[in-house]
Amino acid sequence: MGSAITGWGEALPERVVTNDDFAARLDTSDEWIVARTGIRERRMGGTTSELAIEAGRAALKSAGVDGSEVDLLVLATTTPDQTIPATSAVVHDALGCKGGAFDLNAACAGFVYALVTADSLLRAGHRRALVIGSETLSKVTDQDDRSTAVLFGDGAAAIVLESGMPDELIVAYDLGVDGAATPLLYANHGGYIHMEGREVFRRAVRCELDSITNVLTKAGIGPQDVALFVPHQANVRIIEAVNERVGLTMEQTAIVLDRTGNTSAASIPLALAEAADAGRVAEGDLVLLSGFGAGMTWASAIIRWGQEGLAR
Ligand code: UT7
User: Fold this and answer.
1) Ligand 1 and 189: CB distance under 6 A
2) Is the shortest distance between the CB of 296 and ligand 1 below 6 Å?
3) Which CATH number applies to 2-165: 3.40.47.10, 3.50.50.100, 2.40.50.140, 3.40.50.720?
4) Is 262 a catalytic residue?
């Protein structure tokens, strides 16, 4: 039995931080940030659990489901509120969920990892999963370091995943990690993000290209068959470079990074939720999700959108 995405929702902190806000106190400019990244503003504030609860609540509402009807919660995050317990425990309690809950850290590929994990557990017998990506990256970013401060933001988005579909949700997926690349992008306990930006950029393009090619081949489809491409929102130049190599267009692509910056595990569900709200996906459409990040991790999935035939 397959599953379907039956609801989605998002949460963004109220505080907007523009490029000019950084330019007022750091040696940077709106022109540089827009030209090099595509980012115009980002949101900052809240805790990872607060944002996850708000996004989770919105997703449950959109699915018409009560928290008590959820029997699995997977929270993708690199910025948990504390070391122990998992942030998902706090979210599970606040939303009144049943069953198990756990955090999953696969950096910016985390949401796709979480989706694949939740879908597998639904096939193993769970009924309904809440899958959330939530981050407060502003807390692990040195706000005085222009090379990282301008890139990252806070936010969350969630989906409800329900079993009961005649067909599988995930048509093909690919998960990977290259731990040898750890020194390129990391944050130690209590420390800030360190990133070798240029090298991460180079590898991001290469590993997304390989991962997307892998899932397109597994699914037996070409780029023209993808109704919507939802990439990790780190840098519009990375997205453009990947699109050009794969044969995807910017018209097929969901972009929110101009308003959110890089929100790591929250970026793909934020872009997906916005595209779904805008009516950019229809029953039966093939949606490509692809993320990469610290590790380096990467993950891609092709999913079939829609809930026609769902047995509730
Ligand atoms: O989600 C996790 C994955 N992370 C990413 O995907 C990030 C990948 N990397 C990138 O997006 C880009 O490498 C950056 C946006 C981080 C940087 O862009 P770049 O075109 O690779 O620039 P660069 O690092 O080669 O730096 C070019 C210059 C440097 O000055 P010099 O050495 O040429 O004099 C930097 O110091 O730009 C300088 N620079 C800045 N200038 C103005 C770096 N940050 C800034 C800034 N404002 N905010």
Assistant:
1) no
2) no
3) 3.40.47.10
4) yes
